[in-house]
Amino acid sequence: MSELQTLITRQSFTRILNIYGSGHTYFVDYETGFLDLMNCEYISLSKEKRLQKLASITISILSRSGKYRKFEQEINLNAADRQNLEQTTAHLLW
After folding, report:
1. What is the CA radius of gyration of the chain?
2. What distance separates the 2 farthest-apart alpha carbons in the chain?
3. Where are the alpha helices (DSSP H) in 2-83?
4. Whole-structure pTM value
5. 81 vs 45, higher pLDDT
6. Is 26 exposed, middle or buried (0-12, 13-18, 19+ CB in 10 A)?
7. What's the mean pLDDT when you consider all of the chain?
8. Among 22, 35, 63, 85, which residue has the fewest nearby CB atoms (within 10 Å)?
């Protein structure tokens, strides 16, 4: 966490700490394919854009943002048509 603090604004770091420390951050039943999606989006950015987006991506992951919920809905909708959930996740990512 201390490394993150050196890369983002104090306000963003405080927000992340508040989300993380709120007791509402949990990773049970977390759709880990969302992390793959965030990684793909993140690494496609320039170094400057990655630094600008680091806080918002971290917040999206911790808080199960609207983007996360949309990803989860897509998986649930598509999984009904597919037997293999891993195949569904790969389909959504690529």
Report:
1. 15
2. 45
3. 2-7, 10-21, 33-43, 47-63, 66-79
4. 0.68
5. 45
6. exposed
7. 83
8. 22
Specify the length of the chain in residues: 94
Distance CA 27, CA 40 (A): 20
Instruction: State both tokens at 50.
Output: 């990655």
Asked if residue 80 lies in contact with residue 38, where contact means CB atoms within 8 angstroms, the answer is no
pLDDT at 14 over 80: yes
Task: Give the closest residue to 35 by CA, choosing from 24, 47, 43.
Answer: 43
CB 71 within 8 A of CB 31: yes
